[in-house]
Structure formats: structure tokens, C-alpha cells
């Protein structure tokens, strides 16, 4: 069992073409040893080609005879067997020809990128905003308390003056 344990943080995933194979081998070995800790990077570029297969009966009788003529021009040994097939069983002749078209199913591409969901600068900004809010509320509350105390003192002093005058 080959184990790859010398993957350093200095190695960039895009600079080494065998990095993916090393990562796959490392993960496979980890699963075999019941260790599932993988630090594999997402691939930088990845091309995925999906296939689909479709078919139809080809060629028709006229085209089959034309193709048999073309084969007879190039290869006389196959000519006799093809003519025998076309005369005896046209379906058998169809089964000896193949037309293959390969093309793109979609000409679209999809680009995906990884981004941090909550960056460190956003965290610092939110902490600073919260601290500012609490400091602002604390100062406002302090002024409210001072205002309340001054009003109470004023009330007490004006009440004493009113009592002494009566």
C-alpha cells in the first residue's frame, strides 16, 4: 500500500500535474485505514464531457447500394460478399455499415469559483460596529442618567423653596 504523507503546504495544486493523483491516492489510503481527513484542493481547471448516444437505421436501400459500389472501387475482395448481402438480405447489408457523428451536445460552459462566505475584514467591521453601538448607547444612557439626577435635584430644591415660602 503506497501512502503519500509528504504533501506540504508549499506545494500549489495548480503547479503540479500529479497533485490530483497524489491526493486521490492519499484519500483512498485514508479510507482504507479509516482515516478520513483530507485537505484536497478543488481543481483549478476541469473539463467534463457528457456523452449521449442515439441511433437510427442507416443507410436506406439506395444509399446501401451506393456505399457497396464505393467499397467495390477500393477493395475488390469485399465486393462479392457485399453484393451477395445486398441481393439476398438488405438488412444484413445495413448492419455492415456504420456512420458515426461526434459533436458537442451543448456549447455552454459553466464557471464556478470559491469565495469566503464571511471574510475577516467583514468580521472586524461587524465587531467595530457593535462596539460603536454599545459605546454610543452607554454614553447616551449616561447623559440620560445625569439629566434625570439634575431634574431630581432641581425638583427637590424648588420644592424646599416652595415649602419655606408658604
Automatic annotation (TrEMBL):
Q: How does it sit in the membrane?
A: Multi-pass membrane protein
Q: What is its main location?
A: membrane
Q: Where does the signal sequence lie? A: none
Superkingdom, taxonomy of origin: Eukaryota
One molecular function GO term is: ligand-gated sodium channel activity
Gene Ontology CC entries for this record = plasma membrane
**UniProt keyword Transcription, yes or no:** no
Q: Which UniProt keywords apply?
A: Glycoprotein, Ion channel, Ion transport, Membrane, Sodium, Sodium channel, Sodium transport, Transmembrane, Transmembrane helix, Transport
Q: Which InterPro entries match?
A: ENaC (IPR001873)
Q: Which family does it belong to?
A: Belongs to the amiloride-sensitive sodium channel (TC 1.A.6) family.
Output this protein's name. Answer: Uncharacterized protein
Amino acid at each position: 500500500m503506497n501512502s503519500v504523507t509528504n504533501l506540504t503546504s508549499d506545494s500549489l495544486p495548480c503547479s503540479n500535474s500529479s497533485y490530483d493523483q497524489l491526493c486521490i491516492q492519499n484519500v483512498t489510503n485514508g479510507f482504507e485505514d479509516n482515516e478520513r481527513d483530507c485537505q484536497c484542493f478543488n481543481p483549478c481547471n476541469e473539463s467534463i464531457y457528457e456523452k449521449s448516444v442515439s441511433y437510427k437505421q442507416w443507410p436506406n436501400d439506395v444509399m446501401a447500394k451506393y456505399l457497396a459500389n464505393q467499397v467495390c472501387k477500393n477493395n475488390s475482395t469485399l465486393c462479392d460478399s457485399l453484393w451477395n448481402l445486398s441481393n439476398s438480405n438488405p438488412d444484413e447489408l445495413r448492419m455492415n455499415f456504420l456512420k458515426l457523428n461526434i459533436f458537442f451536445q451543448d456549447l455552454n460552459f459553466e464557471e464556478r469559483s470559491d469565495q469566503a462566505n464571511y471574510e475577516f475584514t467583514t468580521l472586524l467591521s461587524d465587531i467595530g460596529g457593535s462596539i460603536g453601538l454599545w459605546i454610543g448607547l452607554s454614553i447616551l444612557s449616561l447623559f440620560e442618567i445625569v439629566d434625570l439626577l439634575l431634574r431630581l435635584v432641581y425638583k427637590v430644591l424648588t420644592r424646599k423653596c416652595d415649602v419655606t415660602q408658604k
